[in-house]
Design goal:
alpha+beta; 5 helices; globular; MBTPS1 fourth domain-containing protein; 7-stranded mixed β-sheet; Rossmann fold; 29% strand
C-alpha cells in the first residue's frame, strides 16, 4: 500500500486508512506501507498493491515498472476520490494567519496523476463528484464523494449505480440524479497467464468506519 510512511507495528498509519489496515491485519494479511517510489520495491514478494486516495505524482519509470509488475502477476487495487477544479475553487478560503487565499492543490485524490498511472490499461477516471446510497450484493453502500470511471476496456467488468451529482450541490446549481454512473471496474491483464488483475473503485470513504453511515 502506497501512502504515508508506517512503522512496523502500524502505529503511525494515516487515520483515514487505519480501519482498513486493522481489518486486513486481523484477517491475517501482511501489509507494508510503501514510502518510496514504485521502482524501489520487489513486486515478486507481494500479491497486491493498494492505492488509497492517492495524491502524489508518478514518474514515467514508476508507471512503466508497475505495468511490468502487473503483467508478471502483481494485482492493483485503487480506491480513488473526487477531483473537480471548479469545486476546488469553490472550496478556497482566506487564511487570517498568512493573509492569503488558499485553494486545495488537488481534490480528494490526484485524478490527473492517477489517470497517467492507469493509462497503461486503458483506464481513466472523470472529474465529476458523485454521492448516493446503493446496494452491493447484500450490503448497504454509501458513496460519499467519489469520482466515476470515464474509460474502461471493453473486456473488463464495470458496475454502475444511480448517484447524485454532488458537485452541482456544492456549486449551488440544481442537483440531479444521473443514471448508470460507472463506479467499479475490474480487468484481468492479458499479458500472460500469470498476469494480475486491476480493480478501480471511485470512492475511498468506504474504507473508513466514520463514513459507513451518513452524518
Amino acid at each position: 500500500m502506497k501512502n504515508d510512511p508506517l512503522d512496523w507495528n502500524g502505529d503511525h498509519i494515516h487515520t483515514n486508512f487505519k480501519d482498513m489496515y486493522q481489518h486486513l491485519r486481523n484477517s491475517g494479511y501482511y501489509i507494508e506501507v510503501l514510502g518510496s517510489p514504485f521502482t524501489c520495491f520487489d513486486a515478486s514478494q507481494y500479491g497486491m498493491v493498494l492505492l488509497v486516495d492517492p495524491e502524489e505524482e508518478y514518474f514515467p519509470e514508476e508507471v512503466a515498472k508497475l505495468k511490468r509488475d502487473v503483467d508478471n502477476g502483481l494485482s492493483l487495487l485503487v480506491f480513488a476520490d473526487w477531483y473537480n477544479v471548479t469545486v476546488m475553487k469553490k472550496a478556497k478560503f482566506y487564511d487570517e494567519n498568512t493573509r492569503q487565499w488558499w485553494m486545495p492543490d488537488t481534490g480528494g485524490a490526484n485524478i490527473p496523476a492517477l489517470n497517467d498511472l492507469l493509462s497503461s490499461w486503458g483506464i481513466a477516471l472523470g472529474d465529476r463528484v458523485f454521492e448516493g446510497d446503493f446496494m452491493f450484493g447484500d450490503h448497504d453502500m454509501y458513496y460519499a464523494s467519489g469520482t466515476s470511471i470515464a474509460r474502461f476496456p471493453k473486456d473488463g467488468i464495470v458496475i454502475s449505480h444511480i448517484l447524485k451529482d454532488q458537485g452541482e450541490d456544492i456549486l449551488g446549481t440544481k442537483s440531479k440524479v444521473t443514471e448508470s454512473v460507472p463506479i467499479l471496474g475490474i480487468i484481468q491483464s492479458k499479458a500472460s497467464e500469470k498476469s494480475g488483475r486491476v480493480a478501480v473503485y471511485g470512492d475511498s470513504n468506504c474504507l473508513d468506519n466514520s463514513h459507513l453511515q451518513k452524518g
